[in-house]
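Suppose you are handed a protein chain with no further information: no name, no annotation, nothing but its sequence. What can you learn? This example shows the usual starting point.
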Amino acid sequence: MKTTRWLPLLTAVALTPSAAWAQVPPFSADVVTTMNPKHAEQMRRHMEMLKKQGGKAPAMSGEMVGKLYASGLKIRVDMEANGRKTTMLSDMSPSGKNYMIMHTERMYAEMKHDANDARRSEHSRDLERYLKSGGDLCKAIAEEKQGATCQKLGSKELGGRICDEYETTSERGGKQRLCFDRKLHFPLRTETDAAVSEMKNIVEGAQPDSLFSIPDGYTKKELGSTVP
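A reasonable first move is to predict its three-dimensional structure. Written in structure tokens, the prediction is:
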């Protein structure tokens, strides 16, 4: 189990929208992810076990803070744990790619995901559905007819912003609640059985193109190989 397991709560990966899909206006935000006590304890025990076995395990707590940048169909999430800085880049355009960047090691890896990959987080799939539908998550889920369910719970205010709240159940029975910002087309808050992720300190405005590119001088590695 790795800390990157929780990154899908913060960003969408392996999405392939067409040009007709809605896009995310440019903004940046802090993203606070809080695990429920049960899962936080499981993570703590797992990390302790890795350390006893001589492995490298980052320090874990029940809360993680990341930085999210979004513009159009590009999303970046920065995280830091135990002195190691990582970035997830997601380009949701039809020919776009997704990367994990390891800044401490000055390396990056391409994240290869099939559009039907069951390992994708439900959050990622629901963001895909929301953008594709133009802002009607339940309509998009109903049109798929694959066993997932959706209920719109109404609108609410979070941090001075208005969002539309949905409760979904996946084909595999996983449940989550999302509140999509009406202006940003992005979840202000995502709640699952494992954790709650919420955007704070949102700043709207253009984001530099360099944020969504791999830094110069970084070496590509294949997933599964050993990181120094």
